[in-house]
Structures are given as C-alpha cells and as structure tokens.
Amino acid sequence: MTEFFTLLGHTFDQAPWLFISLSFVFAATIGSFLNVVIHRFPVMMKREWQQECNQYLQEYHADIVKQVGIDKLSKAIDHYPPKYNLVVPGSACPKCKTAIKPWHNLPMLGWLMLRGKCAACSAPISARYPIIELITGLLVATLAWHFGPSWQFVFAAILTFVLIALTGIDLDEMLLPDQMTLPLLWLGLLINLNHTFTSPADAMIGAAAGYLSLWSIFWLFKLLTGKEGMGYGDFKLLAVFGAWLGWQMLPLVILLSSLVGAFVGITLIVTKRNQLANPIPFGPYIAAAGWIALIWGQPIVDWYLSTL
C-alpha cells in the first residue's frame, strides 16, 4: 500500500495537470453533495429546535398547549417528509416529486443535459446547483495547483468544502451552524500540532484572538447603538481562521472581509436590492477572505510590508 501511494505521488509530481484535473472532478462531485447540505441541514436544525420547543411546552406549559394546540405550533416545515436527513429521501423535483435519475445528478453536466428544467414537469432548476459545483471544483483545483499532493492540500480541501456549505447556509438563513464551525476550529488546532499551516502556539492564540476581536466589536457596537451588528457565528468563524492560519493572518482576514462586505453592502443599497436597516450576512465575506489568506496571505502581507 505504501508503494502504491509512493508511485501515485510520483505520478502526480511528473504530471501535475493530472492531479489538478482529478481534484477538480472529485471536488465538483462533492459540490453536488454540498448543495444537499446547504438545503437540508437548516431544515434538520429547525426540526430539532421545533421538537425541543414542543417538548418544553408539553412539560412546562401544558396550559398553552391546551389553548393553542401543539399541532398549530409545528407547521413551519410540515411539508417535508417525516424522515428527512442528508441521505433520505433521495433527490427529487420539489414541484412534481419525481425522483432525479443518477445521470441527471452528474455535476454540472446533469443540469446542462436537462437544460435547467425538470425532465418530468419542466419546472425550472436553479442555476445555483451547477454554480456551486463549478466553484467547488475550481477552488479545490486551485488548492491542488498551490499545495500539490500533500497533507496541506487534503486539509485545505476539507476546509474549503465546509466553508462553501457555511456560505450557502448563511446566505439563505443568516446562520452559521456550530455543528460545522466548531469541528473546523478543533481540527485547525489539532493539525497545527504538527505545524501544518502554523505553529501550535500561534494557532491557539489565533483562535482566541479571532473570537475575542469580533466579540469586542460586537459589544462595543451594541453599547453605542443598542443594536447587534453581527452574530456569534461570525466570531467562531474568525476563530477558525485564527486556529488554521495563526494570529498573524487575522488582520488581513478582517480587512479583506470588511472591504468586500462594505462594497457588496453599498452596492446592494445603491441598486435598491437591500434596505439600509436589513441585515447582511457577514460569514461569506469572512470565509472568502480566510480562503484567500490560506493561499496568498503571506505574499500579500510581505507585499504590504515592503511598501511601508
């Protein structure tokens, strides 16, 4: 087995284009699954919250349950099947419920073959599905080009997959689930015990500094305005990048995410696609800035220091 991996690594070293191509195909396939995660995981979370609320009401507020009826408190996601997770039920058209054939689930190609419509009822299929598959493939192919066949590539790809899922969920639900951010945080600390991306000390300081920096800004803004400027999920996501990349990269991540977030927010307001008082998810900008810092962070910092 060791000889096989040695031979495989030698082949990829001799033909890097092969490694990059295979990485793209594999990641695009994972991107198809990430579409499922983005859509279903929030539903699964809401069902869990709903069950907890119902149990609490039944145990401690029987009078409310009797007046309102527990069935009326549980209608938010009743149109989904009773057994609903990342695997069951199989993919189907949301309009006609026709099961999607395996070859129609091929990354990007399936959507193109269907011409963006359901094969049974011709209901439109969102272009977001092939776009996420394409983006996932391109990002991981970039990692393959940058890191080559290495453990850094493997861990960076895992980080990228979870960041894409978090970005999609935050855009849809204004939510960064702890079930995704916290495992990333611990994984970053663990892999850097072996200096994968930074030293163990820098990773630990980075995790604490990432969380506390946004936490401090959150409370300062709240004390001054009485409003909450961001969610706790944003603190944890920045802590993730502190754990993965070290505290030295946090200023760059904060600066890049703030600049992109401000640009997008102002653009949406100017084009009247968003009102000034409406919240805008900040997680996607942290994720994008952190991913850029993962690959080009040090060259960017070196370039900036050279201009001083």
UniProtKB/TrEMBL annotation:
EC number: 2.1.1.-, 3.4.23.43
Domain Prepilin type IV endopeptidase peptidase: 158-266
Pfam family membership, one: A24_N_bact
Superkingdom in the source lineage: Bacteria
Entry keyword set: Cell inner membrane, Cell membrane, Hydrolase, Membrane, Methyltransferase, Multifunctional enzyme, Protease, S-adenosyl-L-methionine, Transferase, Transmembrane, Transmembrane helix
Start and end residues of each Prepilin peptidase A24 N-terminal domain: 25-147
Metal-binding in keyword set: no
Main localization of the protein described in the UniProt heading: membrane
GO biological process terms, semicolon-separated: methylation; signal peptide processing
InterPro entries linked to this entry: Peptidase_A24A_bac, Prepilin_IV_endopep_pep, Prepilin_pept_A24_N, Prepilin_peptidase/N-MTase
Compartmental location: Cell inner membrane; Cell membrane
Residues that span the membrane, as ranges: 15-38, 151-169, 181-197, 203-225, 237-270, 282-305
Substrates-to-products reaction catalysed: Typically cleaves a -Gly-|-Phe- bond to release an N-terminal, basic peptide of 5-8 residues from type IV prepilin, and then N-methylates the new N-terminal amino group, the methyl donor being S-adenosyl-L-methionine
GO cellular component assignments: plasma membrane
Parts forming coiled coils: none
Membrane topology: Multi-pass membrane protein
Family named by the database record: Belongs to the peptidase A24 family.
Role played: Plays an essential role in type IV pili and type II pseudopili formation by proteolytically removing the leader sequence from substrate proteins and subsequently monomethylating the alpha-amino group of the newly exposed N-terminal phenylalanine.
Protein name per UniProt: Prepilin leader peptidase/N-methyltransferase
Organism taxonomic ancestry: Bacteria, Pseudomonadati, Pseudomonadota, Gammaproteobacteria, Alteromonadales
